[in-house]
């Protein structure tokens, strides 16, 4: 392994030591220029504890121009790798450094970089060290004051954290601005932005009557697409006051949107920086899904002001302290804006699509990891989404009153500090008087628990016995697992009367197995378990198709109702994949039943009648056969489309709407109508090409236009080329919509999808330099199970080629796109060999980043 010599260092949680020096004050002076920005940093440092060692400042890529201690130039400093070592005699000093950096050559998009002429920063996790020398770790909190000087014509707007304090114009064509952030913060929350930006302003008055000036900053041409984000921001601010008692704390709150961004957005104190896809929306260019995602991400970043900024993380192993809790908060916020049931279904669908496979694969890690090589690789579905499930379980166990008391205690006790996951759990215990010792395993043990549930009924005696058993599969480095605490909401229903036989019960299963007895059960009971998805586990039950169909029609918990239908569909698809067995009728009947229920919310119906994805079917099988799964799923889609054709046609007509509105009801109708369109297409009905084309042309919103495009693009319709072409032309120049054009084709269910993707990588609009575009084509292709896993390995080769190219520009984004290659254990030997060969080619690449090295080498192990 050529790279083994260069194998990066492993950082371990157990090695944590408090910092030797604190930095109570930081003054930064930027002379901004895209080719050469000068950064003058003045750090007030104080010794922390008894350690007599020198000051150690992290750096990356910049050259030291000058170092001064207490105003005097010194030359006894040294570099240890990229760490600047400054010997200091006393316990308190002022240390100054000067460096020059080149934002316009920064393709990694970490530190200070240029995006479409705007200078902006991204510092989490370790980007600040690419700007200046600093103890770049989250437990060093400092008060920042920032001065920026820049060309006034090119960079008329100068923003940083906190509140603006002064600005002025020089007579050399440059101008300056000073910002001051009174709240001590870690370096990863630093931000600055300089550019030609227009602002959508708003205001918010906090519960204690303080006025906050809000600003959403974008290119002038994008200004008309910022109202939704601004509205979502105001809703978030009010929600956090109402639900958690959290008030905003500065006079201004700014958000800037940029086109080149490695993640969704970043919660820098008072100056959030966003990927423009999570800000910009109007009906013509953004789908309902985009609108919802924008509100969720705006809320997420805003909520970080308390969960992340006021209370930050002691070290990066504690990342889920801020991310898990903040995702839980944004999920709850979104649930409160519309249908909570549909939101829960969407979140569970997402968890199953991204976190369950991660937990079952070579990159599995605990919510609080023990070790990493590159922290950027740990911004994962496990830290974020499984982390949110942990908070949700604690909220369930405590109940709303104790949970709120516990979060109040957490905010009171840890405000202004860098805390740990343990601190959070201890607050949950102290406020509720509960013992969560066993629950803590959720933080340290990786893997998705599997719960088996079987219910026995002795008709004569009226006794029902529920046997529960759990098993946590082995994960890398954790061969043997202890039983976890599973909060399971359950209820029994009578098979004959359809009535509930018990109340809903919360059972805390904390043993490997347990038997529950229910008395006076006078009719055959049907088990509804893990209601609301109260624990993030896989349930294996012996419920028959008839019982699942019954629950899909009768359960009073909407999630359980959805789940029963999913299980029925999944069982059908697994049987069809393995043995070609046709059990379509049971699914057809259950779907018909749901479609005919007038009481149900349209959005719920649309979710409930959707088949599980091909990837999720694959996750149920010992060995994934992508082609067989695809054929089985298409056959069931055809059966549903054909057998229920008239219902789909009716729903399609009945859910047409006059003018576009963004409301839960209107969204639900659009969703159901587009699901109906998909099933009509699956039915093979001759009118569908024309119908979809009409919808494509007449649509007054992107949800309907893209749904029509997807339908046409996935089939063999005569209208297909014209639709793709018309879409491309209509939106040429709007990069967020052109991303959709790439993505639709990368997710295609057609036989030629892999070839089409390879060709699209040569399209003049394709570039790896923009992370959104790379994700739209390469990222989407990686989750297209059938196309990516084409038997000849063309998909694997394509992905590896793209990753190696992307790694030279942007290692962090490259590493994020690698996991599909790590699924080799799940496939037949020829495919596994092809995937391994590509992983080996990646690992052998000279000069590979540690981001990609860590992911590829772990995926091979
Ligand atoms: N804290 C952000 C996520 C984030 C992490 C790293 C980034 O830079 C490469 C950017 C954003 C969040 O949770 O939204
Ligand atoms: Zn976050």
Quick synopsis:
The chain is built from 27 helices and 31 strands. It is of the alpha+beta class and 861 residues long.
Alpha-carbon Rg, integer: 28 Å
| Form type | globular
Distance between the termini: 13 Å
Ions, cofactors and other ligands present here are: O-methyl-L-tyrosine, zinc ion
Would you count the extended β strands for me?
A: 31
Mean pLDDT: 97
Largest sheet: 8 strands, mixed
- Unreliable parts: 1-5
What proportion of the residues is helical, as a percent range? 40-55%
Coarse structural class: alpha+beta
Q: How is the secondary structure organized here?
A:
Elements: E1 11-12, E2 21-31, E3 37-47, E4 55-57, E5 63-69, E6 72-73, E7 78-80, E8 83-86, E9 92-101, E10 111-115, E11 118-122, E12 142-151, E13 157-160, E14 163-169, E15 174-185, E16 192-195, E17 198-205, E18 211-218, H1 227-244, E19 252-258, E20 265-266, E21 271-275, H2 288-303, E22 312-313, H3 319-337, H4 340-359, E23 371-372, H5 381-398, H6 400-414, E24 418-419, H7 421-432, H8 441-444, E25 450-458, E26 463-471, E27 486-494, E28 505-509, E29 513-518, E30 525-529, E31 538-541, H9 545-554, H10 558-579, H11 584-595, H12 602-608, H13 614-619, H14 626-643, H15 645-654, H16 664-683, H17 688-698, H18 702-714, H19 720-730, H20 735-746, H21 753-760, H22 771-782, H23 785-788, H24 794-809, H25 811-816, H26 829-843, H27 850-860
The protein binds O-methyl-L-tyrosine and zinc ion.
O-methyl-L-tyrosine (0A1) is lined by residues 110, 122, 124, 262-267, 300-301, 323, 379, 812.
